[in-house]
Amino acid sequence: MFKATVKNVLFRNSKDGYAVIMAEVNGSDDSEITEKKVKLVGNNDMSDLNAGDHISVCDYRCTENHRYGKQYWVNSWVREVPETRSGAVSLMMEVDGIGEKKAKRVMNYFGSNDGLHVADCIRSKGLEVLKEVEGITDKEAEGIYEVFTSSEKWKDFIIQLKECGLNMIQIEEAFDMWGYYAVDIIYSNPYRTTELRGIGFVRADEIALKYFRVPYDSMFRVESGVIYVLENNFLRKGGHCNADINIVLDEVNKVLGVAITRISEVFDSMVNDGKLYFDKSTGKVFLPYVLRAEDETASKLCDLRYAEAKENFSVDAVLEGIEEFERVNDLDLNEEQKDAIAGLFNNNIMVLTGGPGTGKTLTVKGVVEVADYLGYDSNFDVALLAPTGRASRGLSEKTGISGYTIHRILGMSPDSPPDYNAENPLPYPIIIIDEFSMVDLFIANYLFDAIEEGTKVLIVGDKDQLPSVGPGLVLKDIIDNLDTVYLKHIYRQSEAPMIAHNAYLVNNGCMPDISKDYDDFMFREVADDMYVVRLIKDFFFWGVEKYGILETQVLSPVKGGSMGVHNLNRVLQNGYNPPSFNKEEYRRSGSDSNDIVIREGDKVMQTINNRSKKVFNGEIGIVKYFDHDDRNRSIMVVDFFGEEKNYYLNSSDIFELDLAYASTVHKAQGSEYCMTISVFHKKFYDGMLARNILYTAISRGKKKCLLVGMEEAIRKCVTNNATNERNTMLGTLLKQKMF
């Protein structure tokens, strides 16, 4: 923290509060600030400052810019009370109702021309002393008190929370959430810090034990530990929507080191207070918001199924539409495909499932064209949705109408509810959702909540692919309880016959045919780690030359290790896009996986949904160039299929991106590439050598699929079919509500 006087405002933008200021340092707690004059930049209302203003800079970072030199980016500042009489008068005149006369009357009352002396008197004697000044109303007194005390109050607030280990972003979020009460809230229960972004239980526990010396078995600690175990160990890592009570108690004991008897006491209290739900008949523990999401999803699916249709069509009219679709496209649909199309127009909700090459996308195209035949305008009346941008674009290319990501069409944001919901439903008579195996419980709940009763809904997905990254087995639970058409006949013969065939074999628990090389499928047996990496690199360059960088993808089940995503990305980057004097680059510091270099020309992936940028998790782009925006901030520009997006360096923005030459199999779900190169090795732990992971990896290839590694690992994948098991309640709730 340091104090400064504004000498000159070099630039200001009153619309967004941004300003560039030259200031003179009057005193500093930071030994690194040795200059007398400093350049300050920031956009937190710094444009309100003028020459002569006194400020305290509470939080800042030093940056070096080759164009603008050394400058301090200001995260937080407060205006100090001016020392002079005129300055103090001007400060009071910012209060509604206070003119120059009244402000001077206040100064005269305290018998001083020193603004700091007046401020000290007001702080020490309190608000009531201002009410004694002749002609000052209670409201005006409160305003004057606020302008004279707010800077010290804010500085004290920052200091107290910084002493607890919080950074400025977290401090400001705490203030937005709780105001000045944040200090009392956090000091009374440090585990409330888990409500702030960037603080999980482990960090909150460190804060509580280190700064507050909270007892190991305190109720606050045990409660927070129970929630952490349910959310982290079961919900996030396992995708489970509930857990067995005995397993939960054991896991909490391991994390906290607290006796199970004490954990049980706190657990009972949490159940009584409604913080947990416990089903005594099954011994299952539920987080209330998860159980509520399952119950709401089940209710909405039932409402959609049994609602009165907005439009009814005769069986003959639908069959005529299907025949017209076959005639125009010169093809013959099988009976299952016809059943799926007819079922949707004769009912409200249908499910279509099948493996790669079984004609799911062709059936979706049939729904779109039959809708046009029946009088809809598919460009306006049919919504094609998918979890990822790549999947929605692929669907759009094959059907001829626009596709959207679920997040985009709902208007989802991490900080606010979706734009569309039950009160403001999506305006489409027909909604088709593809790649539904990727949809987790919470996304499904938001999506079905936004679909109006009477809408025709087609859910499309491969039930045997990897489950969603988020909790639940939504597609499986829906298939088990709603009308479903299974496509079994493999049609993808001309382009990639062995990809579809081997995916089918793996899905049915049989070894893929790796006995020889095929045009679209081959396997290389390699045991040595380094040789595996070198072979992947060679195949990758061959694929890039033939299909392009965006259509060639390396896949690995794991992130760490020499054959994991992080190392493969570094190796492939250095080969495909090495350092050059002609290319700018940025080193992103962090943990081992976050400590990467991103340079011009790199292939990158967005890893979280960013509504403001309209870029969503899993989308892949190319770094085009580095630049500065109109406020001199350093940016990196990424091209996502023709749309350029700015990422601010030295900010959380840059942590939303990862290198994407290689990705996990999970991240590739919902996307297809002309060529995929996947590694399966016996060194991977058993959980990553699973049938659905191998099946998903194989089925990502459109024209060529290469497997590199060990036959032993492939065989282990085929025999391990246990990873799809998740504890959910959705299926049970659907049965209860439907029958």
Walk me through this protein's architecture.
The protein is an alpha/beta fold. It folds into five domains: 78 residues, OB fold (Dihydrolipoamide Acetyltransferase, E2P), CATH 2.40.50.140; 78 residues, DNA polymerase, domain 1 (Orthogonal Bundle), CATH 1.10.150; 98 residues, Arc Repressor Mutant, subunit A (Orthogonal Bundle), CATH 1.10.10; 194 residues, P-loop containing nucleotide triphosphate hydrolases (Rossmann fold, 3-Layer(aba) Sandwich); 210 residues, 3-Layer(aba) Sandwich (Rossmann fold). Helix content is 41%, strand content 21%. The chain is built from 27 helices and 26 strands. The strands form six sheets. Strands 11-10-12-13-9-14 form a six-stranded parallel sheet. Strands 1-2-3-5-4 form a five-stranded mixed beta barrel. Helix 9 crosses helix 11. The longest helix is centred in the N-terminal third of the chain and has 25 residues. The radius of gyration is 31 Å and the shape is globular.
Short characterization:
The protein is of the alpha/beta class and 739 residues long. Helices cover 41% and strands 21% of the residues. It folds into five domains: 78 residues, Beta Barrel (OB fold (Dihydrolipoamide Acetyltransferase, E2P)), CATH 2.40.50; 78 residues, DNA polymerase, domain 1 (Orthogonal Bundle); 98 residues, Arc Repressor Mutant, subunit A, CATH 1.10.10; 194 residues, 3-Layer(aba) Sandwich (Rossmann fold); 210 residues, Rossmann fold (3-Layer(aba) Sandwich), CATH 3.40.50.
